[in-house]
Amino acid sequence: MAVRIQILGPFEVAVDGSPLMLGRPHRRSVLALLALRANEIVPVCDIVDALWGDWPPPRARNQIHVYISALRCQLDHVGLGRGILQTHHVGYRLVVPPGARDIDRLDGHVAAARRLLGAGDLERAAEHLRQALSLFRGRPLDGVEGDFARWEATLLQERRLALITEYARAEIARGHPETILADLFRHVRANPTHEALREQLMLALYWSGRAADALAVYRQGRQVLVDELGVEPGPALRQAQVTILRGVPAAAAPARRP
Q1: What integer pLDDT is reported at residue 54 of this predicted model?
Q2: Nearby residues of 53 by Cβ (< 8 Å), 6 or more positions away
């Protein structure tokens, strides 16, 4: 049976394409935590801490056992059996086959992209980065309660922004800056203090022949950084401005430059 665990967006576990009805929030949170730490034993104390922090209820461990029993019944009902959700003397383990989690597929695309970048194959590297980004379906772990979910979601969002930056660099380097302009504009609007994204937007505009727009993006970014954070742009953003002001011919993108 094909199991798919979606973490990079609304949390979902599907079996042969049919999503499981995960029920109450704490039950969903337990399964999400086990999915994040797939194939390793998660101690009961870690699950209690993830669900309730410093204020667990008096019978917290018993409640965890109830949630696990309910989840196991659901998994049994769809034919997965008890092998996927195992009990150990200190906790529980969710056994997940390779490629079942979207974050594992993300890791595979990113690793392939970096190997190809090292080999100078920009086109195939950019395609793997595009595939990696396509796995994000919204805010990671949406619908899962608990501080652990908010923390993991923040880390995954940061990773997404770093991958967008990396993908933009690859597209600019291979001479296709215009293909990523719309995405960069959208993400810079959503993350106005993110300097790496703004830098790539400036360079993509510049190598698309829009130097004036690129400098306007710099001025807007500087104003945001000063007003919101009280800091001047960092060296990478300033260097992008210098590149544009020096007027390196913008008739061709880097990959087509002699």
Answers
A1: 87
A2: 147
CA separation for the pair 248, 200 (Å, rounded): 16
Question: What number of CA atoms fall less than 13 Å from residue 105's CA on the CB side?
Answer: 17
Structure tokens at 116: 């190809």
**Based on the domain organization, do 214 and 162 belong to the same domain?**
no
Q: What's the pLDDT score for residue 135?
A: 97
N- to C-terminal Cα separation, the chain: 54
> Cα(172)–Cα(160) distance, rounded to whole angstroms?
18
Q: Is residue 8 a contact partner of residue 139, using CB atoms and an 8 Å limit?
A: no
pLDDT, tens digit (0-9, with 9 covering 90-100), for 89-108: 999 999 999 999 999 999 99
Find the radius of gyration of the CA atoms of the chain.
23
Give the total number of structural domains in the chain. Answer: 2
Under a CB-based contact definition with an 8 Å cutoff, are residues 165 and 189 in contact? no
DSSP string, 128-191: HHHHHHHT--SSTTBT--SHHHHHHHHHHHHHHHHHHHHHHHHHHHTT-GGGGHHHHHHHHHHS
- Same-domain check for residues 104 and 214: no
How far apart are alpha carbons 13 and 33 in whole angstroms?
13
157-216 pLDDT, tens per residue? Answer: 999 999 999 999 999 999 999 999 999 999 999 999 999 999 999 999 999 999 999 999
Is the same domain home to 13 and 141? yes
The CATH number linked to 240 is 1.25.40.10
Q: What is the pTM of this model?
A: 0.89
Quote the pLDDT of residue 79.
77
